[in-house]
Design a protein that fits this description.
Layout: E1 2-5, E2 8-14, E3 29-31, H1 35-38, E4 40-46, E5 62-67, E6 70-76, E7 89-91, H2 95-98, E8 100-105
Length: 106
């Protein structure tokens, strides 16, 4: 999903659209903290609450078994069709509450 308003372009992933099937919100732990330094962001969840086979990563993310019953969907800029422009801001703050995560740029 892409939208433009007041010169800002926002690209978002929404739960239950275009291959995004998020685990239950109570199990999700998002992290955008590493985007600026590493060019990646992710969410993780406990596989006892939601199986990776029924909650696959979106096509633009990579699945990783984190061990200890945790699974990760990692988004790497420049891989799997994901192209986030320089200077963009990645936002994971609404993943649990609204089932969406996004990036925005001017």
């Amino acid at each position: 999903f892409e939208s433009r308003s007041n010169g800002v372009t926002t690209c978002a992933w929404w739960n239950n659209t275009k291959g995004v099937v998020l685990p239950p919100p109570s199990t999700l732990v998002p992290s955008c903290a590493y985007y600026q330094s590493h060019g990646s962001f992710y969410y993780l969840w406990n596989t006892a609450a939601a199986s990776p086979s029924t909650h696959p990563c979106p096509p633009s993310a990579v699945y990783s078994d984190g061990g200890n019953g945790n699974a990760f969907c990692v988004f790497y800029n420049g891989e799997h069709g994901l192209r986030i422009p320089a200077g963009a801001t990645v936002d994971c703050s609404h993943l649990v509450s609204w089932g969406t995560f996004s990036y925005s740029y001017y």
